[in-house]
Amino acid sequence: MWAPVRESMFLGRGALKNFARFKSLTLQTINKQVLEAEYAVRGRLPTRAAAIQQEISQGMSKYPFKELVYCNIGNPQQVGQEPLTFNREVLALLTAPHLLSNSEKLVEQGLLSAEAVARANEYLEKSAKVGAYTDSVGFEFIREEVCDFIFSRDGFRPDAKNVFLTNGASEGARLVMSALAAKHLGTIGFMAPIPQYPLYSALSTLMDSELVGYYLDEDKNWAVSLPALNAAYDDAVKRGIVVRSLVVINPGNPSGNNLTADTLRDVVRFAKEKNLVLIADEVYQENILTKHPFKSMSSIMHELNLDLEIVSLHSLSKGFLGECGVRGGYCIFENFDPEIMQQFVKLKSIELCSNTVGQLSVGLMVRPPVADAATLYEKEKNEVLGSLRQKAEILRETLSALEGISLSEIGGAMYAFPQVKLPQAAIKAAEEQGVAPDEFYCMQALETTGLVVVPGSGFRQVEGTFHFRTTFLPTLEKMQRAMKSFADFHNDFMKRYS
């Protein structure tokens, strides 16, 4: 094997064309689940947007706009949101502890809050060394803070040994799903909402399992219904699928809903009745736009006094923090067999530990300042959440006024999932190009307005319907400009294809 490879290196340019046949890993030999996994949030639309951005940067743009407006991904700080001052002050001191020797002067000059200095010193005294490995499941003192947060939110306190600190919520989902994907039991099914966040379909594919989609009710603000849950479950069982888990995303992505307590009770009872592990994806719990508040799945389970295996996920990336790149989160396990918990610890140990800056940031998320830094913290928090509400309303007003677009109430998170009734001529034109009709629509929107959104087909949808997912994260000025351009595009598109 080695001889031909070495010879080919000396045979000139023509012979090098054959070099690929000596590669061990090719598209023919790669794990087929990797090839089949898809992640629409970073699919063809963002790739095209990147090419357009490069043209704009090089002064070669031929498009009727000067910049792109990225509404395709929940990445707040990339599109203008500022990090919270207190959190970054503490992280600065923890990553550069020599600054603490001069901290008194910095506080006097107004460059640091005294509370940030106190928190950094507290964490350092608890051995918060950012350059050292931690316990596999994370700093114990941060896990205790997570338990305090849950007690304050829900009125009960989990055991810190069942709290894992993770590199974002997605790591927690992968950890649980990898344990459930027991191929020796048959084809494993993971129930997840449709429209769904592509993380769950991608992980199901990678684990050679099946995503069992249950449809949310668009006419009822994307609610979860028992008939839909039962229909999806029964159909999967009839096909020989071993359904093991139920994923509920609340508030929803991409649907932007906030489920009511009554709905959550139905979900929890259903999961218990079918003996499913409930994965509660609750990373948007701070982003609430409805009159009814957020309720955690865990609190509902305790209210009903059910012995249900549940994993609750949270993350730094969303809420009002928007610390996507810091990669921090937690998962909380409840009612699992102690022997299974040992296996989860083993799985977590394989990667040694999650990143320490993310772990410490979880502590800052669940334990905000209460002294001299509190006023500024609350001001910054309220500005972020208030701006989201304002931009969500601009989005709702603009889209709801357009012929052929319907939009359910935006109840939470940072997304909307409007439906577009595309003309038959547009659907035919898309089919002729070999692309999904909603992708055809979104691509034209991109190239006409500079607005980057994600086609609904990437999230799955009721057959015959077309949607797109958009965030409302860019600055108010950019959102207003983008919505005006989009309205003009949509009206022209409908005229051209009607």
TrEMBL record:
Domain Aminotransferase class I/classII large: 100-485
InterPro entries registered for this protein in UniProt: ALAT1/2-like, Aminotransferase_I/II_large, PyrdxlP-dep_Trfase, PyrdxlP-dep_Trfase_major, PyrdxlP-dep_Trfase_small
Cofactor(s) this protein cannot do without: pyridoxal 5'-phosphate
Signal peptide: none
Keywords: Aminotransferase, Pyridoxal phosphate, Transferase
Protein family (similarity comment): Belongs to the class-I pyridoxal-phosphate-dependent aminotransferase family. Alanine aminotransferase subfamily.
Self-association and partners: Homodimer.
Protein's name in the database: Aminotransferase class I/classII large domain-containing protein
